[in-house]
């Protein structure tokens, strides 16, 4: 898979390193000469250019990319890169970094964004996740399809503890995608039984989040009564 990353700062380089380790082809783009640190990510391609200019993106052959990641520290730049990648080059998957949570509402399909990643929101979500068992935590927002990646740690008193995945009547427009159990990452099937302490990751429509949280957090005695 070919991936172009606009922004070769610490965030962009870190993403590039992970993708390269997973066998992907990566191009890093940045207009600042000081950001071109080939020795830090030697296996990546590098391009000194302004990712907001069509001529630069032509040079980057963006039409050959499967994914574009707008990872600069400037939300305006990330929006422009996303829009150009989607509308001018037809890139199938566009991921954009949101630096200021106040701008998060802009990062949607109207600007070509498929997945918006808000670093401040993600950090606060991880803090919440660490201290709140039984509360639904929103991790990522997928602009296309109006869905979120959400997480909930199943509390010991939940009525669903011990229940098979296939026996649960999940809300509409929700999908259980992963169970994290200790050090294991499980792809759920209908025979798997949920256990207290499981971290459950769902893709869910925003309108279903409250219903999903109620289902997972209901206490055994409430359920029985």
TrEMBL record:
Keywords: Ion transport, NAD, Potassium, Potassium transport, Transport. Residues 1-117 form the RCK N-terminal domain. Gene3D superfamilies: NAD(P)-binding Rossmann-like Domain, Regulator of K+ conductance, C-terminal domain. The keyword Transferase does not apply. It comes from the Bacteria. Residues 137-218 form the RCK C-terminal domain. InterPro entries: K_uptake_TrkA (IPR006036), NAD(P)-bd_dom_sf (IPR036291), RCK_C (IPR006037), RCK_C_sf (IPR036721), RCK_N (IPR003148), Trk_Ktr_HKT_K-transport (IPR050721). This is Trk system potassium uptake protein TrkA. Pfam families: TrkA_C, TrkA_N.
């Amino acid at each position: 898979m070919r991936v172009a990353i606009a922004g070769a700062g610490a965030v962009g380089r870190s993403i590039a390193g992970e993708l390269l380790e997973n066998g992907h082809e990566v191009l890093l783009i940045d207009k600042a000469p000081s950001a071109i640190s080939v020795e830090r990510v030697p296996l990546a391609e590098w391009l000194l250019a302004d990712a907001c200019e069509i001529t630069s993106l032509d040079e980057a052959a963006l039409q050959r990319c499967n994914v574009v990641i707008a990872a600069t520290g400037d939300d305006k730049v990330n929006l422009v890169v996303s829009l150009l990648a989607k509308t001018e080059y037809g890139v199938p998957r566009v991921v954009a970094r949101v630096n200021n949570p106040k701008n998060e509402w802009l990062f949607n399909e109207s600007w070509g964004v498929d997945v918006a990643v808000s670093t401040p929101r993600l950090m606060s979500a991880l803090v919440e996740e660490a201290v709140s068992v039984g509360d639904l935590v929103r991790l990522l927002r997928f602009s296309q399809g109006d869905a979120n990646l959400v997480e909930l740690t199943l509390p010991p008193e939940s009525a669903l503890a011990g229940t098979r995945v296939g026996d649960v009547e999940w809300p509409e427009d929700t999908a259980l995608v992963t169970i994290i159990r200790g050090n294991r990452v499980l792809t759920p099937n209908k025979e798997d039984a949920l256990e207290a302490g499981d971290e459950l990751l769902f893709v869910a429509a925003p309108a279903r989040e409250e219903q999903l949280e109620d289902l997972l957090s209901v206490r055994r005695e409430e359920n029985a009564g």
